[in-house]
Design goal:
Layout: H1 2-7, H2 18-45, H3 47-55, H4 57-76, H5 80-84, E1 87-90, H6 100-132, H7 140-172, H8 181-185, E2 189-192, H9 217-247, E3 288-291, E4 297-299, H10 300-310, E5 325-327
Antiparallel strand pairs: 1-2, 3-4, 3-5
Main location: membrane
Organism: Caerostris darwini
Keywords: Membrane, Metal-binding, Peroxisome, Protein transport, Transmembrane, Transmembrane helix, Transport, Zinc, Zinc-finger
Length: 334
């Protein structure tokens, strides 16, 4: 349990500081980003095996993390980032009087809700980019709904963010016990772990004597060992990541782990094909857009969809992103 000692010298029933609150919340997004990067590296090196896993990474990670956090709540008294920072939830989820529905609500707000928010933000960015480039593909009723979404999503996002900030401020000033609106909705607070909570088998003390024989003790002990192993692995991994990052960013050290792969040469252009033809749809280009990573020109809708789905140039195979799309304007358009 060395990770607890990093953050606290003493433990007891007390209110955590705003810095501990923000730290444990940031750990959620940091872990997701770290796993995403790992799968991205695997997908780039072996797209056949890991390409599909990376494509549906967010959905898979949300499901696995939901199960893991549910188990962690029942065994450790809090979500993984919370116990990592020496915190636990009140009411204590290890107490069997706490309903499964309440714990499921905690998991939803901690894991599923951020995933839904990220998908809404991604959808907004894609729709806004399509609309600004004049390639809005929605028609009729869907178009009206899409335009309403483009109009009201920024308002919702602003209201939510300002509400979270207001809760942070009032919590820091000790005007409320809840550090976020989601915690307020579920009437949940955080407190520091006690010395008793650090015992591996502390969860057993919350099980009534007449129910202990009904529990599959071996299974829960195995899950407890698994949760402890994950905690230790992340603790060591975080230290090694920081050490490696420091080592390879020292002044004068320009080495890297591996050499970048040499990109394949671009395919020869068919000279018989008219220059105004889009390489993807094979029709005359509309909304001419150049992909700066390769220099080839496409229709904006064609290249935007291709790059978003494949992250490469369709002609050269060079790694590309939608940020490398540059709209071309002709004199007659002014």
């Amino acid at each position: 349990m060395a990770e607890y000692g990093i953050h606290h010298a003493t433990f007891g029933e007390s209110t955590p500081s705003i810095f501990e609150i923000i730290g444990q919340e940031n750990l959620f997004s940091a872990l997701r980003a770290a796993f995403r990067h790992g799968f991205k590296v695997l997908a780039e090196n072996n797209p056949g095996k890991f390409g599909l896993l990376f494509k549906y990474f967010d959905e898979g990670y949300t499901v696995i993390d939901s199960v893991f956090q549910y188990i962690h709540l029942r065994l450790k008294g809090g979500l993984f980032p919370e116990t990592f920072y020496g915190l636990k939830r009140i009411p204590d989820p290890r107490d069997l009087s706490v309903s499964k529905r309440k714990i499921a609500a905690w998991v939803f707000f901690a894991v599923v809700f951020p995933y839904l928010q990220s998908q809404l933000e991604l959808l907004y960015k894609d729709m806004r980019e399509e609309y600004s480039q004049g390639s809005f593909s929605y028609k009729g009723f869907k178009r009206r709904v899409a335009l309403l979404y483009l109009k009201f999503y920024p308002v919702y996002n602003f209201i939510y963010e300002i509400t979270v900030l207001a809760y942070y401020m009032t919590y820091a000033l000790k005007l409320t016990r809840f550090h976020s609106p989601l915690m307020h909705v579920t009437s949940t607070t955080l407190t520091h772990l006690t010395a008793f909570d650090l015992i591996d088998d502390a969860w057993k003390e919350y099980v009534p004597e007449h129910q202990k024989q009904k529990l599959t003790t071996t299974l829960w002990n195995g899950l407890n060992v698994f949760v402890g192993g994950v905690t230790l692995s992340i603790s060591i991994g975080a230290f090694l990541t920081q050490f490696i990052n420091w080592w390879y960013n020292k002044e004068g050290n320009t080495s890297s782990f591996v050499s970048l792969p040499v990109p394949p040469p671009p395919r020869k252009w068919n000279l018989e094909e008219p220059i105004e033809i889009c390489p993807l749809c094979k029709k005359k280009r509309t909304n001419d857009t150049v992909l700066s990573s390769s220099g080839f020109v496409f229709c904006y809708p064609c290249i935007f969809r291709f790059v978003r789905e494949n992250n490469k140039c369709p002609v050269t195979g060079y790694k590309s992103s939608s940020q490398q799309l540059v709209k071309l304007y002709h004199q007659e358009e002014y």
